[in-house]
Write a structure and sequence with these properties.
The chain is an alpha/beta fold. The protein is globular, with a radius of gyration of 28 Å. The longest helix is centred in the N-terminal third of the chain and has 22 residues. The chain is built from 26 helices and 18 strands. α21 links the parallel β14 and β15. Strands 7-6-8-9-11-10-16 form a seven-stranded mixed β-sheet, with helices on both faces.
């Protein structure tokens, strides 16, 4: 029987002999490699956190003691040790195990964060609550060196250090977030990792910790003496101690005994302590260790032996289209610079960085700083392009509003992973940006429908000189180009049904990447003898005035978008029509305004009612309800005939009933 098969809770880990932990660590790594290879997920971060997680669960009593993971993509080992090993077949699948901590899954998960640099603030609040309630409970926050580039971490540390509360901050220092960590802090920590004396330092720390009394002031007197004695090598302690935090480290994060010893002493001190563990992302799996890009930070389905992707599909992604075009734009315009927040490769800026290394700025996990820095670059005469996941722009709304828009700076924001992203779950769905950006004066939003319009609208955005612009697109492969059959006042016409010659019944306004879905809906609706026109406004803020006249000529307006309905394109168009005294009814179809569980993109879209069959049925039903009011309508034999039109559900045969 394997050791892993005997682990169902943290207490099972505590009972193991020290010599058994190496075997368990090896079994966990083997399990992770094969499990994640089947489903895809965050492999590298978890391979690097095996021993660290074992030590945490041997020292602390979860869930009584609270363990917070920042970010949650390094929590797979924690899930294994807390009774979820048998659920990994469904990792990141619909109805299966989340790729992040999940409160619904386990009492051992208290936060569901996958936006970085937040765990220390949670820890500050939790520890204050326990102190006020008189509860003697430890709070452990595991934070990466990449997350420490985020300003929230330092705001939280400033407050954690102010009181004597039992907060243990474990710095999982692997020199990376996605790619290598950027900035002055990263250089500070790198000096430790790269020093030739590093291994000697680890040996000294291990030896002295082994001789140090278990509790109280003598412990930290000894540690203080160690640190001051090797201060020329161990640089970070001064930085943390200046904040009033005790510092333990560096500790070899792949030595369970060393980490366990450091954590026990930090726990027993009773106040806030930094435990600095140095680990290697992808540790123990050669394909990950040898991957220079991101050490297999996130993988799809792979061959567990070679680490190579199983799929040989050559489909082009939205990100790749953007990546190619921004490189070309960079060649044509020397004033174009790009910024990102620790996401250089994921947002497609790798080729731009290779071509123009002096014109790309990775600011670390600091979206707020990225946006205001971009405003400064624009004020200095450059054309900044800020590249983020759509969900992460949420963190910088104030900077977009007050630092960019208020100053009319021509910053372009490129938002990858807009709309439903799928497997990464609630925190990663980019379903908020079109709503909160609607309130920003002067800002324009482009929503390309395909590769051709992405290239064109990106160029239009970069050419703008007097206001900020946004270009948003989804995750995954880009569909075939959808050429316009006509253009009306800047609005692309994508489809006109044959019945339009009789009567223009439905105007379907498609936003961005929902074009393929909209066209499928239109074909189903047209097959029922209903006249329908599909248009793409291209720029969804501000909406083109031509939509008003188009709407006036139809009996029903329908919008389809991959954004939350509240404040989305449908809501904006309804307001535009009201202001123009156009009383044509409007049905807006978008993402349900709630946090969505993880699953494949198509599965999630179906759940929220954005599958083509469901949309077509609702459009037909809406027209049927309108029919009695349309006196003299030449497109309908009778109200009853219209009401009998039924769009089939998926799998049913299409047929018009009379």
């Amino acid at each position: 029987m394997s050791l892993l098969s005997t682990i169902s809770c943290p207490q099972d880990v505590k009972r193991l002999d020290p010599e058994e932990l190496g075997t368990l660590a090896a079994e966990i790594r083997d399990f992770l490699i094969h499990a994640v290879a089947r489903t895809g997920g965050h492999l590298g971060p978890n391979l690097g956190a095996v021993e660290l997680t074992l030590a945490i669960h041997r020292v602390f009593d979860s869930p009584f003691d609270r363990i917070l993971w920042d970010t949650g993509h390094q929590s797979y080992v924690h899930k294994i040790l807390t009774g979820r090993v048998d659920e990994f077949d469904g990792l990141r699948q619909r109805g299966g195990l989340s790729g992040y901590p999940c409160r619904a899954e386990s009492e051992h998960d208290i936060i569901e964060n996958s936006h970085a640099s937040t765990a220390l603030s949670y820890a500050d609040g939790l520890s204050r609550a326990y102190a006020l309630r008189g509860e003697d409970r430890a709070v452990v926050a595991v934070v990466g060196d990449g997350a420490l580039t985020g300003g929230m971490c330092w705001e939280a540390l400033n407050n954690i250090a102010a009181d004597d509360r039992q907060v243990v901050v474990v710095v999982n220092d692997n020199g990376r977030s996605y790619a290598p960590t950027i900035g002055g802090l990263a250089d500070h920590l790198a000096a430790l990792r790269l020093a030739p004396e590093y291994e000697q330092v680890l040996d000294v720390v291990k030896q002295v910790l082994g001789r140090t009394p278990l509790v109280g002031a003598p412990l930290f007197d000894a540690l203080h003496g160690i640190k001051k004695g090797i201060k020329d090598v161990v640089q970070p302690q001064g930085m943390f101690e200046d904040l009033g935090l005790k510092y333990v480290g560096p500790v070899d994060g792949h030595d369970v005994a060393a980490v366990e010893s450091a954590l026990r002493r930090a726990r027993d001190f009773g106040g806030p302590v930094i435990v600095h563990c140095v680990t290697r992302k992808g540790f123990g799996y050669p394909p990950a260790e040898q991957d220079d890009a991101d050490n297999f930070h996130g993988v799809g389905v792979i061959d567990p032996v070679t680490g190579k992707p199983v799929s040989t599909s050559k489909s082009t992604s939205w990100t790749n289209v953007f990546s190619e075009e921004i490189v070309q734009i960079g060649a044509e315009r020397l004033d174009v610079v790009t910024l990102t927040a620790a996401m250089l490769q994921p947002v497609g800026l790798g080729p731009f960085a290779k071509a123009y290394p002096d014109r790309v700025f990775d600011v670390g996990i600091a979206e707020q700083h990225a946006v205001t820095s971009a405003a400064g670059l624009a004020m200095g005469g450059l054309k900044p392009v800020v590249c983020l996941y759509a969900t992460f722009l949420n963190r910088a709304f104030d900077q977009v509003l007050m630092d960019v828009a208020l100053h009319n700076q021509p910053v372009t924001f490129v938002l990858d992973r807009a709309g439903v992203t799928g497997e990464d779950g609630a925190s990663h769905n980019g379903m908020w940006d079109m709503s909160f950006l609607q309130v920003v004066p002067g800002l324009a939003i482009a929503a390309p429908r395909d590769a051709a319009t992405l290239r064109a609208e990106l160029r239009e955005a970069v050419a703008t000189t007097d206001h900020p612009t946004v270009v948003r697109f989804p995750k995954g492969k880009v569909a075939a180009d959808v050429p316009a059959i006509d253009t009306v006042g800047g609005v692309d016409v994508l489809f006109r049904s044959p019945a339009v010659a009789r009567h223009r019944e439905v105007l379907l306004v498609s936003a961005g990447a929902m074009a393929a879905t909209s066209l499928e809906v239109a074909r189903m609706v047209a097959s029922q003898g209903i006249g329908i026109t599909v248009v793409d406004p291209r720029w969804v803020k501000p909406l083109p005035p031509a939509l008003v006249d188009l709407a006036r000529d139809h009996d029903l307006v329908v919008t389809i978008e991959d954004n939350g309905r509240v404040g989305g394109v449908g809501s904006s168009l309804a307001q535009l029509l009201r202001d123009a005294d156009v009383d044509v009814p409007l049905r807006d179809f978008g993402i349900a305004q709630r946090f969505l569980d993880h699953g494949k993109r198509d599965e999630v879209l179906t759940e929220v009612g954005l599958a083509p069959q469901d949309l077509a049925r609702k459009v037909v039903e809406a027209i049927a309800k309108r029919q009695p009011a349309l006196e003299g309508d030449p497109g309908a034999d009778s109200a009853g005939a219209s009401a009998a039109r039924v769009v089939p559900r998926s799998g049913e045969q299409v047929a018009e009933q009379h």
